[in-house]
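F.,

This is the one I mentioned.
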């Protein structure tokens, strides 16, 4: 009988050594990052309110920092200063978008390629990079924000926080389940070189 209990104890120890670490092991501390002041060139027929939405800033802020009077229009080719802001990391729900959007124009003006590493976010600055961690398996990736969304909502409340390209969803292991709990963090450039990054472009269509 003693031998049986010893064997069970050994098996339990071995099983626990291979068990998946708790979700908390994949949860980095909440961080806050100041998004530096940047410049943007106005596109053809683009309105100032559209630029404000693109960078998630108030139109009044754009007018003030660029010395634009009330009602003054911007013109194509005009260089605008985009004010700095503060952005926090947080946990949320990730979805992914693929064939239905493949080949369409993204918020940054480029063509969406589902096989490239990129994400869509409603408020993170276009061109900035986010670290997305799948809290269910610990896999993470760093991807640029090139598009806006997701806008799926119920009763006026957004139900998803970030849209992953097919390539990103594949790397994080979320293709089959569709939705996943993730950690979304702004990337600290000074720490970027210390991370194990998965930054591979899937250039095949």
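My design for it:
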């Amino acid at each position: 009988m003693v031998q049986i209990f010893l064997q069970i104890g050994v098996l339990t120890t071995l099983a626990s050594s291979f068990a998946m670490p708790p979700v908390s092991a994949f949860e980095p501390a909440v961080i806050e990052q100041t998004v530096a002041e940047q410049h943007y060139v106005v596109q053809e027929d683009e309105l100032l309110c559209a630029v404000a939405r693109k960078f998630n800033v108030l139109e009044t802020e754009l007018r003030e920092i660029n010395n634009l009077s009330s009602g003054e229009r911007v013109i194509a080719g005009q260089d605008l200063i985009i004010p700095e802001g503060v952005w926090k990391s947080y946990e949320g729900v990730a979805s992914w978008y693929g064939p239905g959007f493949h080949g369409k124009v993204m918020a940054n003006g480029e063509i969406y390629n589902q096989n490239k590493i990129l994400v869509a976010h409603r408020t993170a600055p276009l061109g900035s990079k986010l670290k997305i961690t799948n809290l269910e398996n610990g896999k993470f990736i760093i991807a640029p924000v090139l598009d806006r969304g997701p806008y799926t909502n119920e009763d006026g409340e957004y139900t998803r926080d970030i849209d992953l390209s097919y390539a990103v969803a594949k790397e994080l292991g979320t293709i089959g389940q569709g939705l996943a709990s993730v950690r979304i963090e702004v990337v600290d450039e000074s720490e970027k070189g210390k991370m194990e990054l998965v930054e591979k472009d899937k250039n095949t269509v």
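Residues 38-82 form a domain with the Membrane-bound Lytic Murein Transglycosylase D; Chain A fold (CATH 3.10.350.10).

Talk soon.
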